[in-house]
Amino acid sequence: MAESLHAPPGSRQPQPPLLRWTRQMIYLDHAATSPLRPVAREAMAPFLDVRFGNPSGLYAIGRDAQEALDEARAAVAACLGARPSEIIFTSGATESINTALFGISYALRRAGAGNHVITSAIEHHAGIHAAAFLEELGFEVTVVGCDASGRVSLAEIDRAIRLGTILVNVMLANNEVGTIQPIPELAALLRERTAPGGHRIVLHTDAVQAPAWLPIDVEALGVDALSLSAHKFGGPKGTGILYLRRATPFHPLLLGGGQEMHKRAGTENVAGIAGTAAALQVAAAGTAERSARVLELRNRLRDGILAAIPDVQVNGCQVNCLPNILNVAFGGLESDALVAALDERGVAVSSGSACSSSTWEPSHVLMAMGVPIRRAVGSIRFSLGETTTPAEIDAVLKLLPGAVEAARRQFARART
């Protein structure tokens, strides 16, 4: 008979056996998600139990929840160099990105500023699909390309700007190859292109992959809107951040109550927000030292792969990029087979961004970079984290040749 899911208080239920990966897995997919930081778990715990109040409540437990929200908002703002009133909490980066693109574009079009949006070909699918939907809503969208390293062309953006351009959307660091984009330079360009007395072209950046690796200061970046996802830097899944510069034209995507300063209706996820703030504070501290250590491990992995395995090539830049991401094309195989072969050996990696790993198609990022399709379909993303160790890198280098050989044999059989 199955064990009851609702056991009486105090009863002891048999615990499930540990899964294999909890003991042995080497996790190299931190760009997809990261483990919850203990400090975030600790910050969340009270709001999952005794401090369960709704921040909109006027009684003591509601005021307590509102105070926790205010503290978290101030902490996040301090990490980003922003004002607390410029921080909106969301359900994740997808919502933040969609909210920024839809809310800003709609508000500016309604104000008569224009109808033209510029975005890049290497954005996360949250940005790409949002831009496509803007076109369905009647906006004109220009998609700019990148060079072979994955760097977006400022000159192409400059040429694309025209009368009626209202918004530019370019990510801070790419989630598949790690290339860091020239966002401060882009912000300066947009300021120069603003006509005296005319409307300002708004700049949004998806900065999801940056925390823990890059300092994020919205003033130094010069952005008007910036999106983050908590689970990428050790916070909980289901919580995100949207920075929206004061006085930026905006119409909320979610309508209802007056939460989040009337910019995002819905009862706030107090536990998630508390965990997000705690995790971001840790992630924002010591980025230089953390990045230097992980960069050494990434280069160790890269050099070991190139030395041990024939017919491989690194995709994207190796300078001016995130220190934790390595994208490698393995000739003569399909990436899903290599992911599976590594999984069997206790190693977790990705064939691209997590949001696209369930569909078989070449990475749109690699295609935009001009990577030949035969290389793109065999490309793997290794993304290290701050918990990655030299011993894990060495273990992967021992396991990888056998996994590649198995994936290549499978590919060869499929073609005969």
TrEMBL record:
UniProt xrefs under InterPro entries: Aminotrans_V_dom, Aminotrans_V_PyrdxlP_BS, Cysteine_dSase, PyrdxlP-dep_Trfase, PyrdxlP-dep_Trfase_major, PyrdxlP-dep_Trfase_small
Transmembrane segments: none
A Pfam family matched in the record: Aminotran_5
Domain Aminotransferase class V: 26-396
Keyword annotations: Iron, Iron-sulfur, Metal-binding, Pyridoxal phosphate, Transferase
Reaction equation(s) it catalyzes: (sulfur carrier)-H + L-cysteine = (sulfur carrier)-SH + L-alanine
Catalytic activity, EC: 2.8.1.7
Names of the cofactor(s): pyridoxal 5'-phosphate
Family recorded in the similarity comment: Belongs to the class-V pyridoxal-phosphate-dependent aminotransferase family. NifS/IscS subfamily.
Official protein name in the record: cysteine desulfurase
Organism: Tepidiforma bonchosmolovskayae
Source organism phylogeny: Bacteria, Bacillati, Chloroflexota, Tepidiformia, Tepidiformales
